[in-house]
# Entry
Amino acid sequence: MRTAFLKSTGQIPISRDGDLLTEAQIFSTVKDVLATTQVIDIHTHLFAPAFGKLGLWGIDELLTYHYLEAEFFRCSDTRPEQYWSLSKRDQADAIWRALFVDNMPVSEATRGIIAVLKAFHLPTDRPDLAEARSFFKAQTLEAHIHKVFQMAGVSTVVMTNDPLDPEEAAVWLNGVASDKQFCAVLRLDRILCNWTTHWQVLAGQGYRVDEQASGKSGTEVRRFLVDWYERMQPVYMAVSLPDTFEYPSDTIGNRLLKEAVLPACRDLEVPLSLMIGVRKQVNPSLRLAGDALGRADLRALENLCREFPANRFLVSVLSRENQHELCVYARKFSNLMPFGCWWFMNNPSIVEEITRERIEMLGTSFIPQHSDARVLEQVIYKWNNTRRTLARILSDTYRLLSEDGRGVTRGDIQRDVTRLFRSNAEAWTGPRAHLSDASTQTS
Ligand code: HDL
Ligand code: ZN
# Structure
């Protein structure tokens, strides 16, 4: 106790492993620590191999990513209905020609494809995809996943699992072995945002619910969530909410949130992830690429954090204007964990702004990024970009700290990066999560 007191009063300098870094050493040390610390990717749409075709990988899936489809329609005379009638292969060929041959791939999503091709020593300037296709065709999935995660510096990815998706539910109901590198999440959009369309699925599985979510529906949805928790062992539950989301407000979704989801999350000791700000299908002809964003009223989040202090909220917001407010709310509520630079925010110019203001207001008590990867190999470029941006920001931060009077060692930097990349997620997803079971040995 005495030593701790003396340390706290500065009478004994805080013992720190390693020498204080000179200003010239800071950037290279930060870069090396970032490169050798594997990350827990807290939100993706990837699937473990056991989920078969639900898991997307390879060059044709990479090129038909909805981010690239949106950019394609701006650079081609092909109309959406013509594009949707093409085969996946022909769609990929059309996108490669429009965005990579007829134009320079300078956008975030197109440059990402170039980075993936380069990572596998594939040519990046060919007029067609023949060489890339034969490379990916020659891969076996399990070995390819191991290689991709190693290249991306990722130990574990968290999936997005929808118990009301018929194709995915069948895999879970048949029994699927847990995979240490792929953790599950119980996704609730169809329950909380589209109850009247999907309530019969629960009724069909024997849960006494009705279209208005009245009577015992709340209790029965809670039983459904507990049953699927036992089946999936999710590390958190999640829902994407529109920019118009309000709480409190007398809606079926809010009633189920209050009566079923939040009590279940609290009792099961899992956080609820709220991803707020989507404007769904502003252009339906673009399908998955047709969503946009809107600035949300985060007083809904304020009310939830205050009214449910025993619940933990993992929150990402989609509007740039909401990012600063989210930081301030995180300073007010310790049951609120901001995470990631989501979707339209995941561009270096905006990631830089968001991450700097988070460090300035929250120190290292946040989760800086998730990949949101839908196709396996995207983690390579998404995490390469994050490390590149973080290296600049953290180096500036430590240089400022040194100038203001506190030197930094490699050990200090490792502790911070481990917190940002791993332990905030591990601590937040509760005692029963197994986020850190996967090997974190860096090659
Ligand atoms: O709701 C979500 O999880 C979003 O990430 C959507 O899946 C979106 O289409 C996406 O892929 N964003 O990156
Ligand atoms: Zn997502």
